[in-house]
Amino acid sequence: MNIPIKTADEIEKMREAGRQAASVLEMITPHVVAGISTGEVDRLCHEYIVDELGSTPAPLNYHGFPKATCTSINHVVCHGIPDFAKKLKNGDIMNLDITVKTADGYHGDSSMMFVVGDSIQGGRLARITQECLYKSIAQVRPGVRLSELARTIQQHAEDNGYSVVRDFCGHGIGTGFHEDPQFLHYDGYEPSADAELAEGMCFTIEPMINVGDYRTKVLRDGWTAVTKDKSLSAQWEHTLLVTATGVEVLTARGDEDMSFLEG
Ligand code: MF3
Ligand code: CO
Ligand code: CO
């Protein structure tokens, strides 16, 4: 495992990439309402990334992925493919995952949940999943091991009766979309994979939490990952920088209350 340590200059470029990814989610939020299709959500994000930000959407053509963003509704865990025929309806929950690659080659990766209209079960799942993300981010600082963050996520999910997806993970990020280390969100680390965080590392935390069983399968389109038991699934993701004293959330949005980082 070779975990890159970013230089001051690279960190500035990561900050810009992170801000850009956050700005896409801020831009699209008012558009995500019942009746819009996931294809239209994707089109608006794609246009904004290219025309307003001067960057590229990293998912497009990534290992053959056909669209600019991932839109994962209800029992879709991740990597849902945007589709003009798939309209959001009242009670749906959707994860929208945005990765931008800036003109100088750095990636910012973030995703969030949208609860369309009302869904009591979906709203609770989305909230607990965001808490899993925030509780683990709050622990990030040099010297902490990945497994400590993972245990925090797993504990909070399971305390609330949910399960943690094992088949997809967080990752280092920089000029590469997916760099070392792999970040498992559950306590399943081989000793050699249980990296210790150090100042200058950038990585994502992106827990996928299911109402039912943790197992997933990929549909015949080769991308869409769903829960095997068809139970609801939620995910939130941020790109992080490990600082000397803690963490900087590179993809923080204006709507977020980051006070969990204090104290
Ligand atoms: N953005 C996803 C992640 O968090 C990866 C999407 S890969 C794609 O790592 F090909 F599906 F777009
Ligand atoms: Co990611
Ligand atoms: Co992502």
CATH fold-type name? Creatine Amidinohydrolase
Ligand catalogue: 2-amino-4-trifluoromethylsulfanyl-butyric acid, cobalt (II) ion
Q: Count of DSSP E strands?
A: 15
Residue fraction in strands: 15-25%
Low-confidence stretches: none
CATH architecture: Alpha-Beta Complex
Rounded to the nearest angstrom, the radius of gyration is 17 Å
Q: What's the structural domain tally?
A: 1
Characterize the main sheet: 4 strands, antiparallel
User: What class, by secondary structure content?
Assistant: alpha+beta
Shape: globular
- CATH class, please? Alpha Beta
The average pLDDT score comes to: 98
Helix content: 25-40%
| Number of helical elements | 4
GO molecular function, one term: initiator methionyl aminopeptidase activity
Family: Belongs to the peptidase M24A family. Methionine aminopeptidase type 1 subfamily.
Cofactor: Co(2+); Zn(2+); Mn(2+); Fe(2+)
Keywords: Aminopeptidase, Hydrolase, Metal-binding, Protease
Topology:
Blueprint: H1 8-28, H2 38-52, E1 56-57, E2 70-73, E3 76-78, E4 93-101, E5 107-115, H3 120-137, H4 146-159, E6 163-164, E7 170-172, E8 179-183, E9 202-205, E10 208-210, E11 216-218, E12 225-227, E13 233-235, E14 238-242, E15 247-249
Antiparallel strand pairs: 1-4, 2-4, 3-12, 4-5, 6-10, 7-8, 9-14, 10-13, 11-12, 14-15
Helix pairs in contact: 1-2, 3-4
The structure holds 2-amino-4-trifluoromethylsulfanyl-butyric acid and cobalt (II) ion (2 copies).
